[in-house]
Amino acid sequence: MTETLSLQHAALGLAASGVPVLPLRRGKVPFGNCPACADNACGGRPNMKTPGPCTCPAPCHAWAAATTEPTVIVSPLWAAAWRQAVCVGYHPGGAGLTVVDLDDAEAVGWARTALPATRTVPTTRGEHWIYRGAMASRNGVRPGVDIKSRMSYARWLGPGTGTMVDLPDAVRTLVVKDSAPVRPTAVTVPTGGAGGGECPHRTPVYLERGIAMAEQRITEARSQVHATVYRTFLAVLAAHGRCGCLTEAHVERLFAAAQAKGEKPRHCTEAWTNARTRLGL
User: Fold this and answer.
1) Are the C-beta atoms of residues 97 and 132 closer than 8 Å to each other?
2) Residue 128 and residue 101: Cα distance in Å, rounded?
3) Mean pLDDT, the chain, integer
4) Which residues pair with 22 in a beta bridge?
5) What is the pLDDT of residue 87?
6) How many CB atoms lie within 10 A of CB 69?
7) What is the per-residue pLDDT across 160-203, written as a single tens digit (0 to 9) for each?
8) What is the pLDDT of residues 3-47, one digit of tens each?
9) DSSP per position, 238-274
10) Cβ within 8 Å of residue 267, ≥6 positions away
11) pLDDT of residue 185
12) Nearest to residue 133, comparing CAs of 178, 164, 107?
């Protein structure tokens, strides 16, 4: 009982800070779906690969069950799960975070030379490096290195030490390189406007705000997702497509947002290509 209350207390604390949480059972894995939701018979939770509403009050659907709602966390169904849980998990992408999971000493050594320092949390065999910003998740981006952000979960191991910094391109490109066949190149237009001066969009605030708003527009789409993705790609390219601002990391963020809504990689590529063609890029 004491352990159950301890896990619940930790979960409530995280939820209060805006971090979506879920119980993890033995093996540090999520609980399976309830009988009504088995094999996604219910249609799945929003933003799953099988989009659709689900009002199931149990901790179903793995990472998609993560919540910041305290009444859910202490509800009877969740209380039963906490009694069997061994630790608290959380959805990094739902909190706007990315966890670089370094599984051994060799991977940690690589990170110390290749990535900017950020908040770190020791694990059983390695470390979690936590960055501010969300991206696509992928396991095995290099030996001993997994990326946990959107559509993924991580184990809560404490607040860690160090100052958290923004997600760097060095992390984003770990996924981009591995999925290059379904990603278009960003925009092959020389940097600088027609007058050859410095690109007016290269201020971090302006460009970041534009990409973040585009991601939000796609994420909040409730219908006609494909059309929304195309119009959003068109707007981004109209604003930034001719000056060379966009990088592969920016494109990858837009593709990840679209795929989280159920778009297939080839649909993203087609929408991006069609938007470029319409604008004559």
Assistant:
1) yes
2) 5
3) 82
4) 89
5) 95
6) 11
7) 999 999 999 889 888 864 444 434 444 433 333 333 445 555 56
8) 777 899 999 999 999 999 999 998 889 988 888 887 777 766 655
9) HHHTTTT---HHHHHHHHHHHHHTT--HHHHHHHHHH
10) 226, 229, 258
11) 40
12) 164
Contact between 37 and 60 (Cβ < 8 Å)? yes
Pairing of strands 119-122, 127-132: antiparallel
Query: What is the per-residue DSSP string for 108-163?
Result: HHHHHHHS---EEEE-SSSEEEEEES----EEEEETTEEEEBTB--EE-----BS-
* Cβ partners under 8 Å of residue 61, min gap 6: 33, 37, 40, 44, 45, 48, 54
* Residue type for position 9: H
The first and second tokens of residue 235, run together, are: 């707007």
Mean pLDDT, residues 196-214: 67
In angstroms, the Cα distances linking 94 to 68, 122, 152 are: 10, 22, 9
Nearest to 154 by CA among 96, 93, 110, 83: 93
pTM over 0.70? The answer is no
CA 201, chain centre distance (Å)? 25
For the chain, the distance separating the N- and C-terminal CA atoms, rounded to the nearest angstrom, is: 62
